[in-house]
Amino acid sequence: MANQVEQTLNDKQYELLQQETFMLLSTYHEETRSPMVNAISWVYAKDRRTLVFAVDNRSVIVRNIKSAPKVVLTLIDADSTYSIKGEGKVLTERMEEIPLKLAKIEVDIEEVRDVMFYGAKISKGPDYDKTYDEKAAAKLDRQVMTSLKD
């Protein structure tokens, strides 16, 4: 059975991406000529065809997207796993309103593919805890997510 392929986020995916969500980001590292995977969580769906996310502006992610803009984000929800392919571009290398040096990156979605293996479903989406000051983490998360929505 072929996996379902769409050009936009569905209702459930869009709703999930209205808040901070754990995702895996795959980029191409030109120097090593190999794929690279990073975990990110400051991701927001502007609409069903566009994602924005924030990463440290010193991250190799920024350099990778500038040199090879094709990216894949992996979304794991309570049912399945999705590969979201698109073209990334650095909107700003410094989100001025954020105390950390973060870059804002936009991804124009080209394809959303259900990549869960046959005969299985995710029984629980990934959970994570912030390991630094809880109040500071919550404040920073609010600031970053608000800035991504602008």
Automatic annotation (TrEMBL):
<dbReference type="Pfam" id="PF01243">
    <property type="entry name" value="PNPOx_N"/>
</dbReference>
<dbReference type="InterPro" id="IPR011576">
    <property type="entry name" value="Pyridox_Oxase_N"/>
</dbReference>
<dbReference type="InterPro" id="IPR012349">
    <property type="entry name" value="Split_barrel_FMN-bd"/>
</dbReference>
<feature type="domain" description="Pyridoxamine 5'-phosphate oxidase N-terminal">
    <location>
        <begin position="10"/>
        <end position="96"/>
    </location>
</feature>
<protein>
    <recommendedName>
        <fullName>Pyridoxamine 5'-phosphate oxidase N-terminal domain-containing protein</fullName>
    </recommendedName>
</protein>
